[in-house]
Amino acid sequence: MKKFFIIMCVLIFGYACTIPVTKQDVIQPKDIISKSIPEKNLDVYEQGWTYELKYFWISNYYASLAAQPNVRARFKPISTWRVSKCVIEYFQVNYSFNDFTTRWGSQTQISPADVDVIWNASYACSQTELARVLKELEEAKGKPQKRTLKNTI
Question: Please, where are the H alpha helices in the chain?
Answer without folding.
Answer: 2-11, 51-66, 69-74, 77-94, 97-100, 112-142, 149-152
